[in-house]
Amino acid sequence: MSSFLHQRPLHNILTDQYPLSPRSPQNSQKPSILFNRTSLVLLLSLLIVLGILFPWIQIPQGGLFSSSISSSRSGNPNFSESKWRAYTLSEAAANVAKNNTLIVCAVSEAYLPFLNNWLISIVRQKHHDQVLVIAEDYPTLFKVNQKWPGHAVLIPPALESQVAHKFGSQGFFNFTSRRPRHLLQILELGYNVMYNDVDMVWLADPFPHLQGEHDVYFTDDMAAVKPLNHSHDLPPPGKKGRTYICSCMIFLRPTGGAKLVMKKWIEELQAQPWSNAKKANDQPAFNWALNKTAGQVDLYLLPQAAFPTGGLYFKNPTWVQETKGMHVIIHNNYITGFEKKIKRFRDYGLWLVDDHSLESPLGRL
User: Fold this and answer.
1) Per-residue pLDDT of the chain in tens (365 residues, 90 and over written 9)
2) How far, in Å, CA of 192 to CA of 118, rounded?
């Protein structure tokens, strides 16, 4: 990012070097220095040099006045990179929360288009004011806060800004394994928190489905069709000895039970780190945490018709037609790859940024 270069007006520079003669009867007939041949040659030479060199001037990133140019680019005179570097989770939560509730996502720079798509769908449900973006790198922190001041925070340490991590990679594990720590910190501050991955789209308001006062709400990641009146208890374990709950859509109340699940999730991630032999991700650890705390925590399985997994919504058109009008949040999982996810969203009319980017508080990115 280039720094702002403070320059004195050309007239002042010239008059310092070649002061104009004071107007007095004795010299009033003398021609001004600006109009003699030497001055004109110097002026023309300076303009030519500036014209050639100015487009190529580069000031190192993070220079003394970098925040000034950030302000001018964003159109926000109060924007300051140093301000957002020092912005704490406590400050951000207090600024953004509505009804003591936050809607949270965690995003790296590569996924900004998905963030924008997700935000448009939330704007349509009038819940965007309580969205807090946890930026996993500084470019994301600065870009979101330039467009939408105060709605992004970085919880150190920052990750490197990189391309989208492939599912199953160590980079993907490093990114997603930070999630329970972020959520636990928000619970410790006393807020309700809904977590979403940004490869989701809201078709309706999810909050009416958060019935009761349970500790943890979640969705089943199985594609098998459940009856409409299915149980809201934690499903029984599968073949691997654990359940198959999705870690991408979670609602938590700031209770001892919810905090216990987050702490257990952190422990399970530490016990099952990523390796070349075992390409771990965060979801099995979340399921083990739920299974091992089930007797101590009030858990609630959200209705499948409202919160279907991608393996059901995108692959079972008969079920989609039978449950039409019931869908609330669609998750674009059961597919890997940045471009493949975008294509599938487009195929189903759910890639909103193509025609509706101005509905997002971030506008066009």
Assistant:
1) 433 333 334 344 333 433 333 333 344 444 444 446 666 667 666 666 555 544 444 433 333 333 333 443 445 655 789 999 999 999 999 999 999 999 999 999 999 999 999 999 999 999 999 999 999 999 999 999 999 999 999 998 877 655 445 545 555 555 567 899 999 999 999 999 999 999 999 999 999 999 999 999 999 999 999 999 999 999 999 888 999 999 999 999 999 999 999 999 999 998 876 456 565 567 899 999 999 999 999 999 999 999 999 999 999 999 999 999 999 999 999 998 889 999 999 999 999 999 999 999 999 98
2) 20
Query: Is 182 contained in some domain?
Result: yes
Q: Which domain holds residue 231?
A: 77-357
**Domain containing 198 — which CATH number?**
3.90.550.10
Structural domain includes residue 17: no
- Cβ neighbours of 263 (radius 10 Å): 15
DSSP per position, 203-224: SS-SGGG--TT-SEEEEE---S
Number of domains in the chain: 1
Using alpha carbons, select from 306, 310, 331, 305 the residue that is nearest to residue 225.
305
